[in-house]
Write a structure and sequence with these properties.
Radius of gyration: 26 Å
Shape: elongated
CATH topology of the largest domain: Fumarase C, Chain A, domain 2
Pfam families: Lyase_aromatic (PF00221)
GO cellular component, one term: cytoplasm
CATH superfamily of the largest domain: Fumarase/aspartase (Central domain)
Helix content: 55-70%
Distance between the termini: 28 Å
CATH architecture of the largest domain: Up-down Bundle
Family: Belongs to the PAL/histidase family.
Order of helices and strands: EHEHHEHHEEHEEHHHHHHHHEEHHHHHH
CATH class of the largest domain: Mainly Alpha
EC number: 4.3.1.3
Number of helices: 20
Organism: Corynebacterium epidermidicanis
Strand order of the largest sheet: 4-6-7
Strand content: under 5%
């Protein structure tokens, strides 16, 4: 079933389905009718003697020039060609598909003034799995993600390069012809409408929110494994304690950990000894719900911003419902840029506390009776010593990536665009943060599983199921082995959601 793109907002799930999983799209009849109605108004304005920005004038700092009829098609082509000025590595396919879907969503509101055939061509490229080649650098996150969007508009014109469904790079004209898609000859307002939006940064925000929501549950899963592997206590996760500080994310995280660690023979056997000798777990275990909860609450705020943006028509100028063509600042990426930076901060901190929990397993002074570095024969074997180094290297990188991009601004367009959001840059670094967080949590899970297997008692049923799934591809404790493939395999099980599924099959869906 195709995703309907219409007057109403897309969901984050819709964006992920189209961007990552290749779902088809279709324009609703309501959207096509609104697009056609607004276009008729734009064409009337194009014939009027008074200049209208974006319709019969130049752009940005050149907006004062009135453009005669015979140069307007050239104006739109020139705009797209000149703005397709990206450079650097290619941007990932899922990001470009998200960007194109979100530009199509704005076109479908009928507030941009394009013809229906322009919107239909965007849908056709998505459905044919034709992906414009877009480059890393070129967006300041203001006046839209200009260069990335321009590279997509260029492909719609039948120019530039694209990747086909099999990943082959082809000239856009050839790929469109092979798919029986007619390139668009842009007319008044259309070039501007195709490049003026926050679609790239918003697309990356939607993808990150989807992934981080799952990784938040993995943080609770890892904690539930670690508290058992270290023979700690789950008393700190009891709900009445979290009612005293009623943050929603904190309560959800604590409930998850408690559910995952319940009915644990390891913990039952450890309680008398814990009360006599330990009294309290370290902060990285005891305060896990507070950190993971703050992470969750940040996701909630970012989701609110994303959903508002998904329901927006971001263009400049915009055609209002009563037919006015109005300049505005809705293309400014600040609201999106701020939450992208905020998510990078909490991703770094969630990774940081995970690394600290992992490190406790490796130190005989803190691992409560396990061998040094969980080695089979310490001195001969190094166990998971260097796995923690790998975690530490990633966490250090995530801390650097947590430095906000949105506080930077470099004026452009002859000082007409004198404050920009750098939202695209914030989104690009967040993608690295999401990847790093998943890898750090995978190392904690891998290490905790090894420690649990070295204990005499069994873990909780949920964690037993997780370890059983892990052991399908990663062997249990033993002499030193080539460790990188085991980390890679665990990471894949985290990213795919398979370990989470194994746990939820025992305890039900986690919050």
């Amino acid at each position: 079933m195709a995703i309907s793109v219409g007057i109403g907002a897309l969901s984050i799930a819709d964006v992920v389905a189209v961007a990552r999983h290749g779902a088809q799209v279709e324009l609703s009849a309501e959207a096509l009718a609104e697009i056609t109605k607004t276009r008729e108004h734009i064409e009337a304005l194009a014939e009027a003697p008074d200049p209208v920005y974006g319709v019969s004038t130049g752009f940005g700092a050149l907006a004062q020039r009135h453009i005669p009829h015979d140069l307007r098609a050239q104006l739109q082509r020139s705009l797209v060609r000149s703005h397709a000025a990206g450079t650097g590595p290619e941007v990932e396919k899922e990001v470009i598909r998200a960007l194109m879907l979100l530009r199509l969503s704005t076109l479908a509101t009928g507030r941009t003034g394009v013809r229906a055939e322009v919107a239909e061509t965007y849908a056709a490229l998505l459905n044919a799995d034709i992906t414009p080649v877009v480059y890393e650098y070129g967006s300041l996150g203001c006046s839209g993600d200009l260069a990335p969007l321009a590279h997509c508009a260029l492909a719609v014109m039948g120019e530039g390069d694209v990747r086909t469904a099999n990943g082959e790079v082809k000239p856009a004209a050839q790929a469109l012809a092979d798919a029986n898609i007619q390139p668009v000859t842009l007319r008044e307002k259309e070039g501007l409408a195709l490049i003026n939006g926050t679609d790239g940064m918003l697309g990356m925000l939607c993808l990150a929110l989807h992934d981080l929501t799952q990784l938040g549950k993995y943080a609770d899963l890892a904690t539930a494994m670690t508290v058992q592997g270290l023979r700690g206590t789950t008393g700190v996760y009891e709900p009445d304690l979290h009612e005293l500080r009623p943050h929603a994310g904190q309560a959800a995280s604590a409930a998850n950990i408690l559910k995952l660690a319940s009915d644990s023979p390891i913990l039952d056997a450890a309680q008398a000894d814990f009360k006599a000798t330990q009294v309290q777990d370290a902060y990285s275990i005891r305060c896990a719900p507070q950190v993971a909860g703050g992470f969750r609450d940040t996701l909630s705020h970012a989701t609110h911003v994303a959903e508002a943006e998904l329901g927006s028509a971001v263009d400049n100028p915009v055609v209002t419902k009563d037919g006015r063509v109005r300049s505005n600042g809705n293309f400014h990426g600040a609201p999106v840029a701020y939450v992208l930076d905020f998510l990078a901060i909490v991703a770094a901190d969630l990774a940081s506390i995970s690394e600290r929990r992992t490190d406790r397993f490796l130190d005989v002074a803190r691992n409560r009776g396990l061998s040094a570095f969980l080695a089979d024969d310490p001195g001969v074997d190094s166990g998971h010593m260097i796995a923690q180094y790998t975690q530490a290297a990633i966490v250090s990188e995530l801390k650097r990536l947590a430095s906000p991009a949105s506080v930077d601004s470099i004026p452009s367009s002859a000082m007409q665009e004198d404050h920009v959001s750098m939202g695209w840059s914030a989104a690009r670094k967040l993608r690295k943060s999401v990847d790093g967080l998943g890898r750090v949590l995978a190392v904690e899970i891998l290490t905790a599983a090894r420690a649990i297997d070295m204990r005499e008692k069994e873990p909780s049923p949920a964690i037993s199921a997780v370890i059983a799934k892990l052991r399908d591809t990663v062997p249990g404790p033993g002499t030193d082995r080539f460790l990188a493939p085991e980390i890679a395999s665990t990471t894949e099980l985290v990213v795919s959601g398979e370990l989470l599924t194994a746990a939820e099959e025992v305890v039900g869906t986690l919050a």
